[in-house]
Structure formats: C-alpha cells, structure tokens
Amino acid sequence: LFLLFQGASSLLDMILYYESTTHLDISDNGSMGTSGWRALAHLIKQSVCLSRLDVCNVPMVDYPALSLSKALLTSRLTVLHLHNAQLSGMPLYTLGALKANRALQELHLTNNLLNSYQDALQLGDLLRYNTTLKTLELSNNAVADSLEELCDGLRRQTAGLRVLLLRNNHITAEGMVHLAKTLPVLKVLQVLDLGENFLGNEGIQVIRMPLMVNCSVLQLGLAQASITAVALAEFLAESHQIQRLDLRQNEVKVGGLMALCLALRINGSLASLDLDLALPQEQVSPTQTAD
C-alpha cells in the first residue's frame, strides 16, 4: 500500500484496525507531522501482518528517527527500506535499536551519505550485536576505506548476514586490506558486491588469496571496479565454491578473455559469469573488423 498524504494518523490507525496490509510505502511524505509519526510507530509495534516498510526520500531526523527507533525494538517487520533518508550522523545513531531487533531480515540504506567516520562505527556495531539480519544494502554512500569496523562486525557474524552490498562507496585498494583479514574467517556471508568502486588490480591482488581460502562467498560483484580479467583468473581457477562472478564494465580485453577461458576449464563451481556483450571497439582487431 503506497500512501501520499498529510493527515496521516487517522489513516494509519485504520490500517492497524483492519490488519491486512503487509507492505506499507510512505516514501516522499516529508510533510508528515508528529501525530503521523506517532501513529506510524504505534502501527509498527502492534501490527502482526505488516512485514515491509518503505520510508524513502523522507528526512529521518529528530522525532521521526526517535519514534521509528523505539518502534523497531518490538516490531515484526522483516524488510525496511530507508533510501535517501539523510541518516548520516545522529539519525543513524538514534536507530541503534536495530542492534537489539530480532525480526528484521533486510535493511536497505542506499543514498544516505553514510561516511567513513561515525557512520562506519555504527554500522560495525550493528553487525556485532544483530545476529538475525540477513541482507544489508549500503550502496551509493561514502563509507570509503574505513572498513575496519564493518569488517570486525562481519567477523562476529556466525548465523546471520548473508548479503552485503557495498556498490559505489569510494572504496579503493586500501580498504581491501581490512577485507583481506576478514574473508578467511567468514562463515555465512554468501553475496558480496563491491562494484563501482575503484579497487583496481592492486585491490584484487590484496583479496585474491583470502578469497581462495574463504568458504562462504558464492556470488562476487566486481562490475566497474577498474580491474582486468587476468587479475581474477587465478582466483577463479582455484575457487571451489564461487557460483556467480560479475565483471561487467571492466577492461576485460582479449588477453583477459583467454585467461578466463583457461580458468573456467579448471573451475567446477561457476554457474554464471557476467561480462559485457561486446568488446570495446578499440579492442577489436583489424581482421575481426574486416569480417
């Protein structure tokens, strides 16, 4: 149910009364007042049916963040989308109730300008204390190379987080140092997306051996990561569990394709390899062009 309104409290009370809504979207409602947020918090705490809530493009500052935080302590929500909600700083700290939440399984926090200082610390704490969250989406933020806290939280995960999405976070090879220390001990993480970060071949070299040792990651996203396929070929040849690898929008080149072909002859687990449909024009040989 998608709602766009100003007088929200009465309608939210009605939704709770009839108790049939499973997905509630109140995105783009920046003018919702205190009474509306109070009614929403009551709905979240009391509803048995409501499983997904979307609050996107709404500033989650001051009272909205506080009311949502208190509601999350006892809510039955399993999916929460807070895209572009201005969560950086105090709002994310206020949402600390997520650490004690035992119902939420998916948390999506894209486009929140989450930074490499206090926000990275809060995200690390979330993973240290929350053992039931299965998907954490942090794409399109600015966590950068301050992955130490996040990786420390990942090491504490023994039965929870399976999907971590870190696309477009200004991460470089320097940040891969922290990930390299974490990958060998991960037990449950299955999907890791590092696409649209400037990792370079240097970054891949840092995590190459740890990836080989890792026994949990099944899907690895490296699209638009400024790498060559040759850098991944050795990992692909040695990996016994990787099932999907995304290398789109990278400098694959002919040599990279040959290296991948050789690696695929050895690899017995890969089910999907994502590459661009065609080589860039400058990589096509004159003979191929004539054909």
UniProtKB/TrEMBL annotation:
Keywords: Leucine-rich repeat, Repeat. SUPFAM superfamilies: RNI-like. It comes from Seriola lalandi dorsalis. Signal peptide: none annotated. This is Protein phosphatase 1 regulatory subunit 37. Belongs to the PPP1R37 family. The keyword rRNA-binding does not apply.
